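Reading a protein record of the kind used here takes only a little practice. These numbers are not coordinates but entries in a learned vocabulary of local backbone shapes. Here is one such record, which you should read through line by line.
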Amino acid sequence: MLSEYKAQQSCERGFSFLKNPLFLADSIFLKSPERIEALAVIMGLCLLVYTLAQRELRAALKSLNYTVKNQLGKAINNPTMRWIFQFFQSVHLVTFQQKTEFYNLTSEMNYILLFLPEACRNYYRYMS
């Protein structure tokens, strides 16, 4: 029973993003129950993708015995995807005169991309 209760906390923690002011959930107004249902399904799928990405990143770091720096600069092997998303928030895709480049993609970001799936590396045109 105790393990079931503790497992519930991880799910609750996942939905804590709804309470975050950055998510802007309080500014959404939906008129019909069908739209509310649809939004709930989309949010559930987003949480699933978020959780799977976080688990894959943490597993890759632990299996290779590597770490990344957290917000305080401390080396950890269990970062949250929220931190990774915020870390990559400064990256911009700029197209000028038919030339497309990523700006603010640092060497530390390229290091983190090593532990993400190939599709993520391809998105940033990362060459390993």
About this structure: Residues 2-123 form one domain. The chain has one domain: 2-123.
